[in-house]
Amino acid sequence: MLTTIARNRNGVALLAVTVSVIILAIGLSVALPRVDHEITREKEDSLRFALGEFRRAVAKYQRCHQALPENIEVLLDDGQGNRFLRRRYIDPFTGKFDWVAKTGSGTFVIHSASAQKSLSGAPYSEFR
């Protein structure tokens, strides 16, 4: 009789642990995509910030030299001791300083080298 009661208690404990693990798994399956979504959103915010810094640096360079920069490196040091960027901003999606600069018809536009798409579906290379 005593062994039957002990088995029942063990069975109830096993059932409780199983239910707890199932509830934890369901909670994690809901939470993990949100965490991934938030990480991507933070990277997008970092990308927008860096692109804004590049725009400001190009405008400062243009005011100082009355011309557009030849490349991105000139924004870090123009050879005359001027720095138009505070630091080398790393692309949050490639992890490198591999920005793409496009010039044409009086513009100097910098964008990400990433081929990934944003949460809204637009490619990061089209962010300005």
Helix vs. strand class: mainly alpha
Query: What's the number of helices?
Result: 2
Radius of gyration: 27 Å
Approximately what portion of the residues adopt beta-strand conformation? 5-15%
Helix content: 40-55%
Residue-averaged pLDDT: 86
SSE order, one letter for each helix or strand: HHEE
How are the strands ordered across the major sheet? 1-2
Counting structural domains, the number is 1
* Total E-strand runs: 2
Span from first to last CA?
76 Å
Descriptive keywords:
128 residues, mainly alpha, two-stranded antiparallel sheet, 2 helices, rod-shaped
Structure description:
This protein has helices at residues 2-65, 73-76, and strands at residues 100-104, 107-111. The chain has one domain (2-126). It is rod-shaped. Strands 1-2 form a two-stranded antiparallel ribbon. It has 128 residues and is mainly α.
